[in-house]
Fold this protein.
Amino acid sequence: MTPSAPLPATPPPSGPVPLPASVDDALALLGAGDYVAERSLATALFLSLKLRRPLFLEGEAGVGKTEIAKVLAHTLGRRLVRLQCYEGLDVASAVYEWNYPRQMLEIRLSEAAGDRDRDSLAEDIFAERFLIRRPLLQALSPDLAGPPVLLIDELDRTDEPFEAFLLEVLSDFQITIPEIGTVRAAEPPVVVITSNRTREVHDALRRRCFYHWVDFPDAARERRILEVKRPNTPAVLSDQIVAFIQKLREIDLFKLPGVAETLDWAQALTELDVLELDPDTVHDTIGTLLKYQDDIERLRGDEARRLLAEVNAELAARDA
């Protein structure tokens, strides 16, 4: 699992890329975007693509849910359409709205010219050229590269009425605009929905998706992520970073560090030319890893020394 980070420097495919034909192909597709995935995630992704149903991903912040959509868009050569959810998100921001300034200008020009009656003018100002397409409507629009990847990010931040609105979109891949009619996708987009589980998402929406819980990686996979994403990190330091963070996740902290923090810490330590962890370095850089003062205070001093001593002892025993 990898967090939101810059995609590889390799350019996206120049033409349409076929969807994976097997779970192994789905694993390879994610791997082509430098995403280190477990097989259960690749299985959920394969079924989602094969059966054209949304993929619903839950997990702690920073474990790589959003990155999956970015990698899919990159490796499939599709356009990424992102709807970032927040409290109070409405149809005007998520689906469409009318370009009122342009409509008013059209009305005034027509009134000045006197060339149209009120009925024809009312019909004309609700033409598609005055329509501003927001992410959900954009995702239903045709694209030469194939249906886009629609990322509905952090759905748990919205409210239940917006979830109810999404049911039409996710069931039939269509949106009804009163002034124009129903807009249907010629081909369904690839839909990835993420949630940090700050609240429960309704069962009606979950039933329309394939579900996967994106967990913190084990030590072996997190070490592999570091190799792929931060190849310049010294081997000894990488081992210490992974072992130390695995220990941290066993402590009752307010916010456990995700893979995003692992990569940030590795980059920070590399920039500081650190070759091996010591208590002072942990103390000075802990704010890269933990984001709440209570957690930081708990790890400073003796606790950090204890954890680092355990890490070094375990690594020495492994290498003996």
